[in-house]
Amino acid sequence: MTYANAFGITTAGMILMSFESPLIKMTHVSAQIFTFYFGLCMFISMNITLLLKYKRTIFALYKTQFLPILASGLCIALSNLFFILAIKHTSVASAVFILSTGPLISALIAFVFFKQKTPLRTFIAIFFVFIGLGIILFHDGALGNMKGNLYAFGCVFAFVSTLSILERNKEANRLACFGTGALMVSCFSFLTTSIVVPDAYSLTLIVGMGAFLTPLSRALIGIGTKILSSVEIALLTIIEPVLAPFWVWLLLGEAPHLNTLFGGAIIVLTLLIHSLKTHQAYQKS
């Protein structure tokens, strides 16, 4: 596969992922009901793929990689649950802008707790990201949307933990990890709410997202990671916070507040500049 193909495939995956937020918003069910059916669909879809590829050795795969699959699955489950709760309890723009800070928050955690060497440009970027977050949170706090924003931060920390586990367990099968996380998040939802059958409209959206859109987007991004560097992947992740609010405005008429757009613009621009600077440093090394 060429670099151009990998770049195009990963970009397509990111664009598909940007549709997840509006689809969640468009359903008429609670976050827990959505999560239950979404997790089941994603679990079935990913394990059918694994079964077709590994056939009888699929059980051996789970057995030999049990601990990393279980640990990453738990973090994936929490990140999915918090993501859906965030979308249901605050504006999509606020949620995705907060979620986009994941790489920098990960760098901050690595510096504080693991004494990992961090370049000055990352600290400068973190400073401006927190300015953007402050503007968003100030406005959302006045509207009573802080609960949704806290869920978004929970998603960030769970996602960062997932990346940390997967980075230390490169042999762990990614489909098995995400499939396990999907099953676990369904179990969480089952234990915390009364499960009912959604209306046909909502169920169609949930099945479409859980069985096709999300697995396909993750598969495309996973293909790209075999060729592209982590810096280039981080640069492409900016696509989601840019497109998701646009899709929600186009499909649902939910126009982001000026404060949210201003704070989000600071975050996205900061991430873009930081990624470009990191890419330049990566090429020189």
From TrEMBL:
The chain crosses the membrane at residues 33-54, 66-87, 93-113, 120-138, 150-166, 175-197, 203-221, 233-252, 258-276. Signal peptide: none annotated. Coiled coil: none annotated. Residues 13-137 form the EamA domain. It holds the Pfam family EamA. The keyword Membrane applies. GO terms for cellular component: membrane. Keywords: Membrane, Transmembrane, Transmembrane helix. This is Putative permease. It comes from Sulfurospirillum barnesii (strain ATCC 700032 / DSM 10660 / SES-3).
